[in-house]
Structure formats: C-alpha cells, structure tokens
Automatic annotation (TrEMBL):
Residues 178-190 have a biased composition (Low complexity). GO terms for molecular function: GTPase activator activity. Coiled coil: none annotated. This is GTPase-activating protein gyp7. It comes from the Eukaryota. Residues 162-191, 252-275, 770-803 are annotated as: Disordered. Residues 459-696 form the Rab-GAP TBC domain. Keywords: GTPase activation. It comes from Thelephora terrestris. InterPro entries: Rab-GAP-TBC_dom, Rab-GAP_TBC_sf. Residues 780-792 have a biased composition (Basic and acidic residues). PANTHER family: SMALL G PROTEIN SIGNALING MODULATOR 2-RELATED (PTHR22957:SF502), TBC1 DOMAIN FAMILY MEMBER GTPASE-ACTIVATING PROTEIN (PTHR22957).
Length: 819
C-alpha cells in the first residue's frame, strides 16, 4: 500500500521525531527507467529509479539516490507502488503530502547509491542527440569520485509515456536550457534529465557553466561562480557574426569551405539543437534598420584589416631584402619587428595556401587570446603562491609541477611526482672545478655530473659551456686526467684535418658536380642561419678576405651576387666548411637541410674553433641522425611514438586530434626535427640542448618536452581549434612565447608519471591483478575541467576490471637512458 497521508503541523513534528533513527525517508521526486550501463553490452544494463529523498532530522538532509528495480522488488509490492505513485503525480506540497519509504540497503554489485546534495560538486548533462538516443547525467562528488552515469530511457518511463506533456510554446527558444516554463504549476521538459535538473533547483543552487555547456555546478563556491559565468563566443557564433557583413558576398582569397556561413533569411528551425552560450546570452534580435549599420561597420573594419595586412606584407618584402639590411638598425622598433625571420616567410606562405593566412580563423584568434590570459593568470597565481602559503587541503593539487594539470592515478595510490629542477642555481665555474682533482681526474661520477647539469643547467657567465659540452657529449672522455684528454684530442684534431683535406685544395673533388650541388645547399642555408647572432652578423673585415681564404671558402658559384643572398663572413664560411666536411665524414647521409641550425649554436659556444665544433656536431648527429634520413622514417617513428604517448597519458587530447585529422602531429615536426631551435631564443636553446644531451631520464626526452608544450596549451586546443590547419597555425605561432623552465619542469613530471604508470602495469601483470585505467586522462576539478565523455566519468568503483594494456616497444624505449 502507498503510505500517503495529510499531516498537520503537530503530525509533522511527530514524524520528525519518529524519523530521527534514520530508518524513514520522505520521497520527494522519482523517475523510472533510469539505467546504469556497467558494460558496453545492452544486456547488462540495470534499470532503476532516480529519486530525491528528504531525510527527516532536526537539520534535514536532501539526498540524490539511484535505486535499482531489483532492490525494490526485494522490499515488496507496496514499496514499488510508492515510487510509481510519486512519479505519476504532479508536484505536490512538501509540507502536506508525504510518502515515507525505507531506503534499501545498497550492495556493490547493484551500483545503488544515495548521496547528500551538499556532497555533489557537478553534473555532466548530455541531452539525447542523433548519436546517442538516450540522454545521460554523470555525477561528480566534491571528494573527486564519480558516481555511475545515469541513462534516461524516456521511451520506457511512466512519467513520459503515460503522463502527456503539453508541447512547448513556439516562442521558446530551443537553445534555452532548461526551457522557460509557461506556468509555475507545469514546467515544460523535453527529456528526463532536464526534468531532474529542474527539480534539483528547488533544493539547491544549480549553475550552468559558460565554459562547458554540459557542465552544471551544484551549490558552487564564489570562485566557481566567477570562473564559470564568463561569456564566451562559440565557434559557430563568430562565423554567423562575420556572415552578417558584406564580406560574405565580396571577393575573398579564402577557399569556399573556409568562409563563414551566411545567416538564413527564413525562420530558424524549431528543432535546432544549438545551445551555445552566445545564443542564450544575446538579447532579442535588433530591428531591421540596424542591420545595414552593422554590415557597414563590419565591412569598414575588414577593409582596414586588409589594408593593414597588405602593408605588412609589402614592408616585410622590402625590409627582408639584403640591400635593406644597412638601414634596418636605424628604424624604429615597431618597424624593425616587420623584418622577416629566417625561413618564416616560406613556411607562412605554405600555411596560407591551406586557407588560414589571409583571413585567419576566428578560433585561432580566440585561442591566442585565451593563451595570453591563461599565461597571465598562471604568473599571477605563482606570485600569489610565493606570498600566501597554500592550505593543506589545496596542497594535493596545487603543488603539482604540472601547474594547471593534475594527472589522475585512478588505478593505484601512486605518489604525485615533482620536478627536481633548480635552474636558478646553475653549475658555475667554481662548482665545476671542485669536481676535479689537481690532475684533472673527476672526483664525481659521470652520472652525478649529468644529474646536476639536468637539474641546474650550466652558467652562461664566461666560457664554461666550451669546457663542459665536449665532456657532456662524449667528445672527450670523462674518467681520465687532463693529460689523457689532451692526447685523445690531438688524435681527433688530426682526423678532422684528414677529412677536410679530402675536398679542400683538391679541385677535381671540389668542382665535382655532386659536391657543387652540396656546396650550394650548404651555402644557402648558412647565409640565413642565426643572422641575429653577432658572430654571423659581422661584415667581412676586408674586401680581400675571400681571396685570402680561398682555400677554405666553399661559396656556391650560383650565389656570387650580393643581392641573391645575405652577405657572408669568415664565420659563415667556417660553418659551411664544417658542414661540408661532415658530408664527407657521413657519406651515406651527406648534408641535409636543418643541419646548419644544429651546428651554428655549437660553433658559437666553441668560440669559432672548427675542430671542436666538428666533433661535437658528430656526437649531436649520432643522436639525431634519424631525423634527417631521406625517407623520413626516423621522423615518422618519433611522431608515432609521441602519438602513442598522448594516447596513453591524455586520451581526450588524442581523440580531439583524431577528430581534427591531426594525428600525424605535423605541427610538432619542426620541434622534433631541430630540437626546438626556432621555438626559443638563442640563449634558451643552449640551455635546452644541454639538458637534452644529459640523457638523464631518457634518450628521447625531447618527446616529453613536445608533449609538455601540447599539454600547456591543451585547453586552448580542445576549446577553440577543431581543424588541422588551425592547430598547425596556432602551434607555429608559439615560437618565442614558450617558457623554457616551466616546460622542462612539466616534461620531467610527465616522464615520471609515465614511468610510474608503466611500472604499475608491469607489476599488476606479474601479480595477475586486474587494472582499471582512467579514460579521462588529465583533468583538474578546481578549474572545472570535467571529462566530456559521459562514459569516461565513471568512478573506478563502478567499472568492471579491464584487460591490462599492452605497451608497444616504442613506448618502452622512452624509458631507456644513458647512451
């Protein structure tokens, strides 16, 4: 029997007293045929009731519960009828109507739960759509755990099948969530999850996030309200706004598939599912008379933009010409900034052919703006953290060296890794000399030296790098005396001149056709490599220099004209001679474009000494030779390994790249090819390379640096960039904006997290223990970065044991170090 009774105030007081033992609860709301899907098979789905229950007490609590039908069957028919009756009734007065129930005892295998609303942090709401017939709601708790995802089978539910719902009025926007009710007695709902959200608003503050339309915060804090109420422009809205101007009907170099969509003149589709923040926040459409004004304004702004862009291109063409070089230093700084960087113009032209250059995608603008805001916020957070110590409660998340990222280790209680780097205290000359005795024999092991260089870096004061780099790269032996190193070095000096004499001063070799072609490639690259460095920017000391150094010069006969290329000097010629000698040393590979970028910094650090520069280049190329193979098999392998690393560590980012057809990771190609040579300033490149050369953690630590850069800009990529050419342009424009020390710290933490994950998988496999890998990758609850896939938000307690993943050999090679 259904226990429904009218209560007076006296009876209500009595019922409160009777329910203080916790055995009786008042059922306020329920909905049937709400399923939990433990597996991917429909036969395993568990039907049940979602309910809002009030626990009677002096301070009453409101609970959100899901009860499977099997548990109600155990209670008997009377308890079942109570839920059915409440579901079929209209909203009633809580103070007068009461349906008291016995909360069934939950068992782990039933997936039942009941949690106070005060412990619910957020809801992830996914309405029904073409790809998912049933809407779903995932419940995230404040403690970080996630309850089983609830799927609303409205076609089976009593409240939707038997109780007719009057259609929503035509004036209601379909994008409004939840729709405005036409009367306080009968709110309009379209599916079961929306009905549940509307009822929850009676008992708690439910705020929809402007950062993610699917995210609803329950009783949010002040910080959450400020973070999740910012108005953002969605991708489609920017296109629609641009389409209102005359640009849509004017000539444009942009391909047709990249142009903004024209706004339809007919009435909008009443069944449209668009629910962007912009459409919900915009007021009523302006009168027709203002449309022409808006179009004229947009057309004028676009005209100014086109004039500015054409002017910049013309200025870059003029100022990048070698004849304009003498006047560039005397120009104002804003004008000097237009001078073209090395190789940038060719790459930019290639990007523009993809349809992004002349009229950049609005999403790239938004991503760039969001990146700047995020970087400023992160710097402000660090300054504040130095002044105000964080509380113990926040230490678990804020102390992570990933900054805004928090690596989820749902599979086990793995410790949170931290960076060991202290770049503010680099290895200086005094510390370096203390590592050797009077004979030059080291008092510390090479492993300790590598560790300190990785952690601290090398001081840029003086020429300490000139001493350290040959030992770090292995050109000179570590565990020997100064006398032993000098003896070994004399042998290497003789070997260098033997290689150089194979072409230098031998006309039949120097003028051979294949050598002429290689000389031309080397000469073109060396003339434009690091021209901002003083060593290569110096003009020739005298007009007779070329004649005096004819024995060593390899100037291409096709580039004798001063206007064809930038002028060279003795250091440019020495650099070219070193690269040509390397071509004779590594005959199978020869010279490949990009090697000059690797050789130039070494030449500068070695003070222009060709012998030591050559042998350091040999050691560097032994590490990076695979990058320059003609068939690009080495680059393909490294990008494939990086792709697998992203799939393991950040599945959500991997799926985004997959949807954008960007899994080839071509936007990381230049990073890996020349080890971020063009992404950092010259001095920062020196600091980065010496960290990479230590091989302290991994021989392929460069891939973790690339992964760290992607993770630093993860939110911008996921939110704004949905096409490959947009991601490519965005990543290309990161040049000279990446913070080196932060990136290296993040790369170290990512490596330590990866090694922990591999070790944990191997341990579980050896012990025969099942594993449950997180499918959400990286997330940060404090920043509201909830998982987007409802299936990926289930807690580990609600997932069945998964099969242990098999790590590829490429991923395991990332753990190899010490060449």
């Amino acid at each position: 029997m259904v226990e429904i009774k009218r209560q007076t105030k006296e009876d209500l007081a009595t019922s409160h007293h009777e329910d203080t033992d916790g055995n009786k609860y008042r059922l306020l709301y329920t909905k049937s045929k709400v399923y939990v899907n433990p597996t991917a098979y429909s036969r395993d789905n568990i039907p049940g009731f979602v309910a809002i229950v009030k626990r009677e007490a002096v301070n009453p609590d409101y609970l959100l519960a899901w009860i499977p039908e099997s548990l109600l069957d155990e209670k008997g028919r009377s308890e079942w009828d109570k839920f059915v009756s409440v579901e079929g009734k209209a909203p009633y007065d809580e103070e007068e109507d009461a349906v008291l129930i016995d909360m069934p005892t939950s068992r782990p295998e039933t997936y039942a739960f009941s949690v106070p609303l005060t412990s619910v942090y957020s809801l992830l709401v996914y309405p029904p759509n073409l790809s998912s017939w049933y809407g779903s709601i995932a419940i995230n708790l404040i403690n970080g755990s996630t309850l089983p995802t609830l799927y609303f089978h409205d076609d089976e539910s009593t409240s939707f099948c038997l109780s007719p719902r009057s259609p929503a009025p035509k004036a209601t926007s379909p994008a409004t969530y939840p729709p405005q009710s036409t009367s306080p007695q009968e709110p309009q709902t379209s599916w079961g999850g929306e009905d549940l959200i509307a009822r929850l608003r009676n008992y708690s503050h439910v705020l929809r996030s402007s950062l993610d339309p699917a995210l609803f915060l329950v009783d949010p804090s002040r910080a959450d309200v400020e973070a999740h109420t910012t108005i953002l422009f969605g991708d489609d809205e920017v296109d629609d706004i641009l389409a209102q101007s005359s640009y849509a009907n004017s000539f444009s170099p942009i391909p047709a598939h990249r142009r903004p969509r024209p706004i339809p003149t007919t009435s909008p589709n009443p069944y449209s599912s668009r629910s962007s923040v912009l459409h919900r926040s915009m007021a009523a459409p302006p009168p027709a008379m203002s449309q022409g004004t808006s179009q004229a304004r947009m057309a004028l702004l676009q005209s100014f933009s086109n004039i500015k862009r054409a002017t910049q291109h013309a200025a870059q063409n003029i100022l990048s010409h070698p004849l304009a070089k003498p006047i560039v230093p005397h120009l104002p700084d804003p004008v000097k900034s237009l001078v073209n960087a090395n190789g940038e113009w060719e790459f930019r032209s290639w990007v523009e052919k993809g349809g992004v250059g002349e009229f950049e995608s609005a999403r790239v603008y938004l991503a760039r703006w969001a990146r700047v805001v995020a970087e400023e916020g992160e710097r402000a957070r660090r300054r504040e953290a130095q002044v105000i110590p964080s509380s113990d409660e926040d230490a678990g998340e804020e102390s992570s060296s990933l900054g805004i990222f928090e690596l989820l280790h749902n599979t086990s209680n793995l410790p949170t890794p931290k960076t060991t780097r202290t770049p503010k205290h680099p290895v200086d000359t005094e510390m370096w000399m203390s590592w050797f005795d009077s004979t030059g024999r080291p008092k510390v092991s090479k492993e300790e030296m590598r560790r300190e260089v990785f952690r601290r870096g090398i001081s840029s004061v003086g020429d300490l790098r000139r001493t350290v780099w040959p030992l770090l790269l292995g050109v000179l032996e570590w565990d020997t005396t100064t006398e032993g190193r000098e003896k070994l070095w004399e042998e290497k000096r003789k070997r260098y001149y033997e290689l150089r004499d194979e072409w230098c001063g031998v006309p039949e070799v120097f003028e051979r056709q294949d050598v002429l072609e290689e000389r031309h490639r080397i000469d073109v690259d060396c003339r434009r490599t690091d021209r901002a460095v003083s060593l290569f920017a110096q003009p020739p000391t005298s007009p007779d220099d070329k004649t005096a150094s004819a024995r060593y010069a390899i100037v291409s006969p096709q580039n004798d004209e001063i206007g064809a290329q930038a002028p060279s000097n003795e250091h440019t010629e020495q650099l070219a001679a070193i690269l040509l000698t390397y071509g004779f040393y590594e005959r199978e590979l020869g010279y490949v474009q990009g090697m000059s970028d690797l050789c130039a910094p070494i030449y500068v650090v070695m003070g222009g000494e060709p012998e030591m520069t050559f042998w350091c280049l040999v050691e560097v190329m032994d590490r990076m030779k695979q990058n320059f193979l003609r068939d690009q098999s080495g680059m393909k392998k490294q990008l494939s390994t990086l792709q697998q690393l992203i799939a393991v560590m950040d599945p959500e980012l991997y799926r985004h790249f997959e949807k954008a057809e960007a899994l080839n990771l071509f936007f990381c190609f230049r990073w890996v090819l020349i080890a971020f040579k063009r992404e950092f300033s010259f001095n920062e490149v020196l600091r980065l390379w010496e960290v990479l050369w230590t091989d302290y953690y991994s021989n392929q630590f460069l891939l973790f640096v690339a992964f760290a850069v992607l993770e630093s800009h993860r939110d911008m990529i996921l939110r704004y960039l949905i096409e490959f050419d947009e991601i490519l342009k965005y990543c290309n424009e990161l040049s000279m904006t990446i913070e080196l020390d932060t990136t290296l710290a993040q790369a170290e933490v990512l490596f330590l997290s990866f090694s922990q994950l591999v070790a944990d998988i191997d341990r579980r496999r050896a012990e025969g223990e099942p594993i449950q890998l997180p499918t959400g990758g990286l997330r940060n609850r404090k920043e509201g970065q909830e998982g987007r896939d409802p299936d990926s938000t289930r807690g580990s307690s609600s997932l069945p044991a998964a099969v242990l993943p098999t790590l590829s050999e490429e991923l395991r090679e990332l753990l190899k170090a010490r060449r």
